């Protein structure tokens, strides 16, 4: 009788676990459908308004030309002007959401993000240096991008170097990141103080963050970085789950905590550097998306990482849609919209939180 009861309990646990996993997968499909829907609406709006049906027909015609038809005007506007921006928002939002999730997990700090750790400040300084002085490692069209990428990496590896000297603990990484953020912000301010008015305006606009200067080659670069970095982060997601129990517990279970933290931080900062050097500083995506994800599906990083990415993609393309339409034909910088959307959302999460999800 006791054996039967034990078997029944195991079956119930298995059923509950399968339901739990099913809800998570359903939520992933819901986010994917939402991204497709918002992307289609965004691609249909602009100076030449197209219907959503015409937009999807244009996209499907390129993928399946034998089964769908599309007009020449729709193809030009959708594929050459709007989809590069939208795909950039999806890829950049996904990367920032994943990066914020990993940083919060390895540092055990709900406020950790690419912005608060100074990586975005380093990229802003590099871009401002190129815009205001013309000094850079790479010339030509990639002068600003090259500088932003270089200084974002410089900031990241400085944080890793400083933290390794004192042990790669969450506290030292956070303190080193805050120090780098203030240092590069101060140097950027000094550059702008002595710069010409037009150059300063351009530097400030770049710093706010935007998706307006993109083409398919640039999208491919960031997509390539995401393809390289994301699988490495997913491989370590189980280690992140174990590390949540504490460094000593993780070490007793066979996880090399210090090495894992350094590897994850290096891969994450490389991904962030590839994104912010093209987009500029886009705040709140890497901060809010992981929190929304943990509220929705719990704290299992095997699911939190991809869902945070999807949440980040959805938030960024939604913010970009608002930026394009709220004062049309004026297009606002998307970084300002994410801040407007992110701050009230974050405050609402704090006020309405009824249980611990972190």
Automatic annotation (TrEMBL):
What stretches pass through the bilayer? 25-45, 86-107, 119-138, 144-162, 174-194, 214-235, 262-288, 330-351
Instruction: Say which domain of life the source belongs to.
Output: Archaea
The membrane topology of this protein is:
Multi-pass membrane protein
Q: Which GO terms describe its biological process?
A: siderophore-iron import into cell
Instruction: Identify the keywords attached in UniProt to this record, alphabetized.
Output: Cell membrane, Membrane, Transmembrane, Transmembrane helix, Transport
Single annotated GO MF: transmembrane transporter activity
Quote the cellular component terms of the Gene Ontology held in the record. plasma membrane
Q: InterPro entries from the xrefs? A: ABC_BtuC-like, ABC_transptr_permease_BtuC
Q: Report the locations given in the UniProt record.
A: Cell membrane
Q: Name one Pfam family in it.
A: FecCD
Q: What does this protein do?
A: Required for corrinoid utilization. Probably part of the ABC transporter complex BtuCDF involved in cobalamin (vitamin B12) import. Probably involved in the translocation of the substrate across the membrane.
Q: How does it assemble?
A: The complex is composed of two ATP-binding proteins (BtuD), two transmembrane proteins (BtuC) and a solute-binding protein (BtuF).
Please state which protein family the record places this protein in: Belongs to the binding-protein-dependent transport system permease family. FecCD subfamily.
- Annotated protein name in UniProt: Cobalamin import system permease protein BtuC
Organism this protein belongs to: Methanosarcina horonobensis HB-1 = JCM 15518
């Amino acid at each position: 009788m006791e054996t039967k009861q034990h078997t029944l309990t195991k079956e119930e646990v298995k059923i509950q676990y399968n339901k739990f996993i099913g809800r998570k997968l359903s939520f992933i499909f819901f986010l994917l459908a939402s991204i497709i829907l918002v992307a289609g609406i965004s691609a249909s709006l602009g100076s030449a308004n197209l219907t959503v049906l015409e937009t999807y027909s244009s996209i499907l015609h390129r993928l399946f030309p034998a089964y769908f038809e599309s007009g020449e005007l729709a193809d030009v506007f959708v594929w050459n002007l709007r989809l590069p921006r939208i795909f950039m928002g999806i890829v950049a939002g996904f990367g920032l959401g994943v990066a914020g999730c990993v940083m919060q997990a390895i540092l055990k700090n709900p406020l950790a993000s690419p912005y608060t750790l100074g990586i975005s400040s380093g990229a802003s300084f590099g871009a401002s240096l190129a815009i205001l002085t013309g000094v850079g490692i790479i010339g030509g069209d990639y002068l600003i991008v090259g500088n932003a990428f270089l200084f974002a990496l410089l900031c990241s590896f400085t944080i890793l170097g400083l933290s390794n000297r004192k042990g790669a603990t969450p506290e030292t990484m956070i303190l080193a990141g805050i120090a780098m953020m203030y240092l590069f912000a101060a140097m950027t301010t000094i550059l702008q103080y002595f710069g010409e008015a037009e150059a300063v305006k351009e530097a400030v606009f770049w710093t706010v963050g935007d998706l307006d200067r993109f083409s398919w080659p640039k999208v491919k670069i960031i997509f390539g970085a995401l393809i390289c970095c994301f699988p490495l982060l997913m491989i370590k997601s189980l280690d992140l789950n174990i590390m949540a129990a504490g460094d000593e517990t993780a070490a007793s279970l066979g996880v090399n905590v210090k090495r894992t933290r350094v590897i994850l931080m290096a891969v994450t900062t490389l991904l962030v550097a590839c994104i912010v050097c093209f987009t500029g500083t886009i705040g709140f995506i890497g901060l809010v998306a992981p929190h929304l994800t943990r509220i929705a599906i719990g704290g299992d990083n095997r699911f939190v990482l991809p869902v945070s990415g999807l949440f980040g993609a959805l938030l960024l393309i939604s913010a970009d849609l608002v930026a394009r339409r709220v004062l049309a034909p004026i297009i606002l910088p998307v970084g300002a919209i994410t801040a407007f959307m992110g701050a009230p959302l974050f405050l609402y999460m704090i006020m309405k939180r009824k249980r611990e999800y972190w």
